[in-house]
């Protein structure tokens, strides 16, 4: 799986259509967040996911920590992929892998100021149970692990790409202006963005999405040439 572009934080059907019309195939839905402040209702997410074509993917972004709970919720939503953003144990990851070989599992690697070694060890420990890793950026001011709009040390991401036997999706503060350089430096298999594609009104901006895709495709072509 190469050169995937995911857009996360879809807030409604209109936004999903805009993103799909732009040519993006992977849509991320953060649901049942610990904050309780989901941007979309589960029923609207289900309706959007139901209408996706086989080459498109609805991705549940979740902090759930138990394999049974993740599996049940994925079935309810009809998603074929899940992005596990919490500190799920290796045991539960292994259980999820065993019970749901059909589910595409992404495990987050949330980069902090000083946790590179910890993340490299996590890659070694759980790689066999996941299909892809996804980096993200920790915000020490709020404790948030996702949708922070912040970049992190890309040398850490590049090291994670080199270490991982599984492909890596790069996320964390990507936007139309930095995505090409991020891809050149980190050489990920996939990229994801959320807040960097929003306009002042908090909705995804078609011009930003178009530029993001153009810049990303150019850089992917360079690194795979
Ligand atoms: O997207 C969210 O709202 C979200 C909330 C809580 C945890 C993770 C979340 N999203 C995960 C993603 O894949 C985001 O796109 C990723 O965090 C990058 O966000 P940004 O830095 O704003 O591009």
UniProtKB/TrEMBL annotation:
Pathway(s) per entry: Amino-acid biosynthesis; L-tryptophan biosynthesis; L-tryptophan from chorismate: step 3/5
Molecular-function GO terms, alphabetical = isomerase activity
The main enzyme category here is isomerase
Q: Keywords, A to Z?
A: Amino-acid biosynthesis, Aromatic amino acid biosynthesis, Isomerase, Tryptophan biosynthesis
Q: What is its EC number?
A: 5.3.1.24
- InterPro entries of this UniProt entry? Aldolase_TIM, PRAI_dom, RibuloseP-bd_barrel, TrpF_fam
What reaction(s) does this enzyme catalyze? N-(5-phospho-beta-D-ribosyl)anthranilate = 1-(2-carboxyphenylamino)-1-deoxy-D-ribulose 5-phosphate
Q: Which residues form the N-(5'phosphoribosyl) anthranilate isomerase (PRAI) domain?
A: 35-213
Q: What domain of life is recorded for the organism?
A: Bacteria
Q: Which Pfam families match?
A: PRAI
Q: Which SUPFAM superfamilies match?
A: Ribulose-phoshate binding barrel
PANTHER family attached here? N-(5'-PHOSPHORIBOSYL)ANTHRANILATE ISOMERASE
Family statement:
Belongs to the TrpF family.
Its protein name is: N-(5'-phosphoribosyl)anthranilate isomerase
């Amino acid at each position: 799986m190469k050169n995937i572009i995911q857009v996360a934080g879809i807030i409604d059907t209109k936004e999903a259509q805009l993103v799909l019309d732009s040519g993006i195939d992977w849509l991320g839905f953060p649901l049942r967040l610990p904050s309780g402040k989901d941007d979309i209702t589960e029923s609207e997410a289900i309706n959007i996911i139901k209408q996706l074509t086989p080459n498109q993917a609805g991705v549940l972004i979740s902090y759930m920590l138990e394999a049974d709970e993740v599996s049940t919720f994925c079935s309810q939503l009809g998603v074929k992929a899940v992005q596990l953003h919490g500190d799920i144990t290796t045991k539960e990851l292994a259980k999820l892998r065993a019970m749901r070989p059909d589910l595409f599992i992404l495990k987050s690697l949330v980069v902090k100021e000083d946790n590179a070694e910890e993340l490299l060890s996590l890659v070694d420990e759980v790689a066999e149970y996941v299909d892809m890793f996804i980096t993200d950026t920790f915000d020490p001011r709020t404790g948030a692990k996702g949708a922070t709009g912040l970049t992190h040390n890309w040398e850490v991401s590049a090291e994670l790409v080199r270490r991982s036997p599984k492909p890596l999706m790069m996320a964390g503060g990507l936007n139309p202006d930095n995505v090409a350089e991020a891809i050149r430096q980190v050489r990920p298999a996939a990229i994801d963005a959320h807040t960097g594609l929003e306009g002042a009104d908090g909705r995804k901006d078609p011009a930003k999405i178009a530029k993001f895709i153009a810049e990303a495709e150019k850089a992917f072509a360079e690194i795979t040439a």
